[in-house]
# Entry
Amino acid sequence: MKKILGILIIVSLVITAFYLHFTDQENIVAGNSPGESAIDFELQTLDNIPTKLSGYKGKPIILNFWATWCEPCENEMPELDRFHQEYYEDVVILGVNITSQESNEQSVRNFVNELDVSFPILLDTEGVFRHYQVINLPTTYFIDSNGMIVDRYAGELTFEMLEQLKVKLK
# Structure
């Protein structure tokens, strides 16, 4: 009986997640594929600073969508931070936490502090991830200095992969 109940709970959670993700269809617009302009948005940082994607126009951007409960995101975060520390003059890294899918904002702060993340973390309480049709976490967009998406990668990135993809941002 416990096994059946457990399976029912898991199935209902999966169905609920899909429903919540895909029912907000009016928020899905063009601008999330390579060759298109990146969709502009404004979100608050962990320090409550309003930050617009377009505020970084003129610099290449690595836009990384992630969550604290995502193990590949946790594995990737030190790689992103190492890349940020080495290439911060050339490329902006913005971490977009899917805050609407977190248990609370404090868990995001704890995660970032524990991993000593040095690049800006934006709190997506607005569902920006839906505009970018983020289904898997982590998902990373590579945006050139003109605001055009040059690549998209779903999955865990390494420092070496980031260096290879950086070349496309020139």
